Amino acid sequence: MMGLRRVLRISHINLVLIKNGLDELILSIPMARPIRFLKVFMFWRWFKAPRGTRGERIRKSLEELGPIFVKFGQILSTRRDLLPNDIAVELARLQDQVAPFPGAEAKRIVEQAFGQPVEQVFSEFDEQPLASASIAQVHAARLLDGTEVVVKILRPAIERVIQDDVELMYTLAELVERYSAVGRRLHPREVVAEFEKNIFDELDLMREAANASQLKRNFKDSAVLYVPEVHWPYVRRNVLVMERIRGVPISAISELRSRGVDMKKLAERGVEIFFTQVFRDSFFHADMHPGNIFVDASDPAEPKYIAIDFGIIGTLAPTDHRYLAENFLAFFRRDYRRVAELHVESGWVPPTTRVDEFEAAMRTVCEPIFERPLKDISFGSLLLRLFQTGRRFDMEVQPQLVLLQKTLLNIEGLGRDLYPDLDLWKTAKPYMERWMRQELGVSSVLRRLRRELPVWGERLPEMPARLTQAMDDLAATRVHLARQAEELNALRRELRYGSRRNFGAVVGAALLLAAFLLLGLSGGQAPLLGEQPLLSWTLAGAGVLLLLWSGLRR
């Protein structure tokens, strides 16, 4: 049955590719070279040439192939370090809007998740969804105490559908990587693996609820970002209940302006939220496209962001965000040498990388950009160019940096839609400098000491015993090392004596051999004091003495 489903799916994919004129792209790859002659027999191309650019045709094909391929295209669009720019731009236009599944089915899933009728969980449940996407859809509801909520419900049998399509993607990626040099450079299997991780993370709504709770704690009492509350008693792996928020969609720019919202402040607060998440918390919302962001415009002079959909979250290790901050500041200061050194120190490029060559490559990328007005510089595009340059130096793909780049591109594009004169550099630089001062200054040292104080309080009584043990261990180590040094010296002496004995034995044997040869030449008949026999017996005697000396020294 699985084999039949796969055959039917592959057939459907082929038909969609042919319909959108992608058969030409398929035949252009090296692995298809032996069958390119079939192009003349493609009768469907005789009457109608493919319409649109290759990027448009790829986007339309993914939309027709269904929600999982749409999701894959969206994630693939973030890998601009791998894709041609025209395809990446077109894939970014993919919309995660699909037909909803029936409301009755949604009720059945909720009842199965809670083990009771939906009326015993909610006083109201709207079967008409508020929104529908590839993984889940959202319904409005009201708890028994009257609290307004939204209920996010995974699509039925979505895991099986995703598993089948991901396995198929792996098969296609393996073929491309095996038979295409370009495919090997693009690492298609790694891209599919990254997609698989992200999409299966999104299938666990418990994980999403935990992400939302963490982000809410990070921005508790914040004046710039509000995160809806999770109602944990009503959270299951396939059902998530959260506070219902009401705000203006961030994409409704005309409505925001009509309400008198301070667009400059709104744009700058978006940048502040991004850098706060990345550099203060190392925990950032990595899916901040316009569909997931609303604005609380109740106070137009102090607009506040509202975020939803926490399925994709990026995290950074302390070393990563430290290196990122230093990289950004080095770029601001045009200190390309420091940029190159940081890439080596962080392990993002191999330790054998020549810093001077990497520095020159960074300068080539950055200098033309810096000659433009700062407000016209795209920070996200610069980061993309740097990633592309890094690949020439075998820079490994860092998943956390890819998510960071994607989020930065979203935030920057969004900020400039809101306020075209937004100067991201001017907005971000003081924040990062302040962060670096806090991270490296006296206050940071005091914070670390305060954090470690309980641990030191527990260990302090043990310190005398630990020091005594350490001193004993050190003394024992010294004795051991002295003994080893003595044994090593004895071994060296033995090797020297052995080499001398061997040398004496070799020379003695050579002298005896020379004596026998000389005696052979004289026939062994000359008197003892004759010229040749005298020399022969002298050599023989010396050889015997050397052999005896070598044997005695053993």
Written overview of the protein:
This protein has 554 residues and is of the alpha+beta class. It folds into three domains: 2-98 and 161-197, no CATH class; 252-440, no CATH class; 464-553. The protein is built from 22 helices and eleven strands. The strands form three sheets. Strands 1, 2, 3, 4 and 6 form a five-stranded antiparallel beta sheet that branches. A hairpin with a 4-residue loop joins strand 3 (136-143) and strand 4. Helix 13 runs antiparallel to helix 18 and helix 17 runs antiparallel to helix 18 (399-418). The longest helix has 60 residues, at 463-522. It is elongated, with a radius of gyration of 37 Å. It starts with a helix and ends with a helix.
